[in-house]
Design goal:
Blueprint: E1 2-6, H1 9-21, E2 25-30, H2 32-35, E3 55-57, H3 60-68, E4 74-77, E5 101-106, H4 109-118, E6 123-126, E7 144-149, H5 163-166, H6 170-176, E8 178-183, H7 194-200, H8 210-216, E9 219-222, H9 226-232, E10 238-241, E11 264-266, H10 272-281, H11 284-297, H12 304-315
């Protein structure tokens, strides 16, 4: 039996499919702030559990919370693509302060190699991305493009939002297409607020639920997020925005730069509309490049929840 803990909804999105695939699940625990949000699609919020049980988390912060709560058997699954930026930050694959994690569940070999190298005594399993199986296809509706930006994380230049590079192109984009504004959850909670930036650009349709983005959008424009790979995995085109601050001579792998061809890349705001038009054509070379990138990020494109559940049960 294993408990599951999530403090944010985008962590729970990855954990819930695994929880449902377990043959003997424990409690699905939510942070108090998450539990108070409605609607709540998860399985309740028990306030007391057996601290000797193993627990599965999907972030560095939740890992530390469970450690503080006295949990000694911790498993951790990536809630993104498993990116690293050449740092030891604990939030990224291969990061520091995870000596007490007994099982790492990763979406790809890139991430698995980083964890295995850092913690050779831990069990590391490539399982894929559990979220992929639940992402909806495009429903009937008008041609729609979605737009997503990272939050301004100043860890390295590649983790800072590309909004500044493309801000002056957004008004024309909104005048040309039906646009949905999306972004990293932290981009909506800290200054400068992304929803306010969108409104100033004439984008009033803001959607924080990525499943709704997948349900409504024909194309996704994004700077740096695992969501660009998730959207591409549904078979639809992506435009990849490169900030002027991103370093072309520094290769972190995955998004920077081995898998950046998951979509049509664009480096300047005045080229954004042309990139969108080209991506919407979705020509065979573009589809081939997308599939090649996805083969690296997601060597398994389905069945991740069952694979993760089996790895957890073997570990326990």
């Amino acid at each position: 039996m294993i408990d599951v803990y999530a403090s944010e909804s985008h962590f729970a999105d990855h954990l819930l499919p695994v929880y449902e695939a377990l043959t003997d699940p424990g409690d699905f625990l939510l942070s108090e702030s998450l539990a108070q949000r409605e609607p709540n699609p998860w399985h309740g919020t028990p306030k007391s559990t057996d601290p000797t049980r193993p627990v599965l988390v999907a972030s560095f912060g939740d890992h530390k919370r469970m450690r503080k709560a006295g949990r000694t058997r911790i498993a951790r699954i990536e809630h993104g693509a498993g990116q690293n930026y050449g740092t030891e930050h604990g939030s990224y694959a291969g990061g520091k302060d995870a000596e007490d994690v007994g099982l790492f569940l990763t979406p790809n070999q890139y991430s698995a190699n980083l964890w295995h190298t850092r913690y050779p005594g831990a069990r590391v399993e490539v399982v894929g991305c559990p979220k992929l199986d639940s992402l909806p296809a495009k429903q009937d509706g008008p041609l729609t493009v979605a737009l997503g930006f990272h939050w301004d994380c100043h860890l390295v230049p590649e983790t800072v939002s590309a909004f500044g590079t493309f801000r002056f192109a957004l008004e024309e984009l909104a005048q040309t297409y039906n646009v949905i504004g999306h972004g990293h959850p932290r981009a909506f909670t800290g200054p400068p607020m992304l929803n306010r930036r969108y409104r100033r650009a004439g984008i009033t349709d803001v959607e924080t639920d990525f499943s709704e983005v997948c349900r409504r959008a024909d194309l996704y424009i994004c700077d740096n997020s695992s969501s660009m790979f998730e959207f591409a995995a549904t078979g639809r085109p992506v435009v990849v925005m490169n900030s002027h601050s991103y370093r072309r001579d520094v290769n972190h792998g995955l998004r920077f730069w081995d898998c950046a061809d998951v979509g049509v890349q664009v480096n300047k705001g005045d080229a954004l509309l042309d990139a969108v038009a080209l991506a919407l054509e979705d020509r065979p070379p573009q589809r081939e490049a997308r599939e090649h990138a996805l083969s690296i990020v997601y060597p398994y494109r389905s069945g991740a929840a069952q694979r993760a559940a089996q790895a957890i049960e073997d570990w326990i």
